[in-house]
Predict the 3D structure of the following.
Amino acid sequence: MTEAPHSPLDFGISLNSREYQYPHNENYRPEMESSLTSSSEEETDRTGGQEPKVIVYQSCVLELFKMCQTCGSPINSTDISYFGAQMRVKWDCLKGHNGTWTSSPEIHGMPEVDLLVASAVLFTGATITELEDMSKVMNLKVISPTTFCGIQKAYLFPAIEQLYTLQRDQILERASIKQNLQLPQPPTSSEEVGEMHQPLPKLFHLSGNGRHDTFGSSSKYCCYTFTMDDTKEIIQTNLVQVTEISSSVAMEAEAFRHGLEAILDTGLKVGVVSTDRSPSIRRIMQEEYPRIKHQFDVLHTAKSFHKKMLKAARKRGQGPLADWAKYVINHMWFSSASCGANSEELVRRWLGILHHVTDVHSWTTNGEEQHCLHPQMSDGVRKKKKWLERGSLPYKVLSNLVQDKHLLRDFENMELFMHTGALEVFHSAVLKYMPKRQCPSYHGIRERGLLAVLEHNENIVKRRPATTKEGGLKMKQFFCQRTNQWAMKVVYQPHTHNFRQRLLEIVMAQRQDPTLPY
């Protein structure tokens, strides 16, 4: 077995350590009788991830090598050696019997436990450095970083690619079935009512967002991800390195172009794509994909506007803006969600906030009567509000922000109320497998990102809110540091990790291939 030339520090040091738990397999049924020895081939053929394992002291193991199991004579010599995480004991008795005992089965000469340890490290988002630190404290025998890198390159990375490709093909197959369920084209005139019309193919809505490997403008990698807007499943992810283009600023646009082109090459009909308000992506959509409707993400727009309000509130005489920041952002979300896919109605509702903050809830614009859409407030609620006076400095600043011409122009691309909330959740989950302060290789970033995709797609569709014994939603109280307030949120069922067991099965099957060099 030759060692791979990769650096043992290929994955750096992770910020968080997590305990690995093997997923429950409902098809597995343990045998009623167990044995202290594993002599039969049926036991060694069983997937190692399903068999319970324990940490045993060396002295306790040697207690079993005092008498020969063949003749009962005393054992006069034992030779202990370690191969990765496997322990081997060679023994000889006084009557000439000898043998070799191993702590784990082998697959074509490689200890199965070495494969399992390497798989557990990568598939749970840990690092070999973390495993080394833990094993040194316990004086626990584990695989070396060089062995880990060799197993990772030969077995783990191909297994991740294989399972990701299979999962992506299944998503595309379901999308293709939906696309073939074509909608009838509506008639364009009264004379055409009752006539046959050519069916319209279903056009899918996609949301995209990019993630850089480090903070700031000195990032080396950018991973751009696309999700299906109806199921929130990730359908495409592309990784771009800074050496491929001119600068780190241009990585996101290049990754976006590669990802969208790959999706279109599959034959999927895309009607709408939602991204942030990046000028480079906006130019790509206008020049290269004019037939696809481009929408701006409400989430990023609201976060940007919220920062501007808080920044203005820190200036002298503009403190009341901080009290209204939360309500103005909520109004932006409401205006986009309730405009009925009409950009003019979106702008009209958005500008109504300038009347609401002054305690005016009915007004006239261009001879048209308008009013706030919230329920009528009681006198007690109105007295508690810190209304702004029309003509005051905070009101003028807010008016300039609300009526900014660039913002009103971008509202023309926000009438469909699309946002990348699911991608923001995914990017938070990516930190489990790939913290920003790690410096892995190109392949390390890609494969760890695919692990996050596998976990996301497994749980995003079937995950449901947890319920109480009475059948109601289970809620949890938490303190939001951003708003400095207590709030309630729904508790969801824990994530499942069945993909890890499938990856283990692929790894074990690959080891049976004698053509692999490692």
User: Anything to note?
Assistant: The longest helix spans residues 145-180. The radius of gyration is 30 Å.
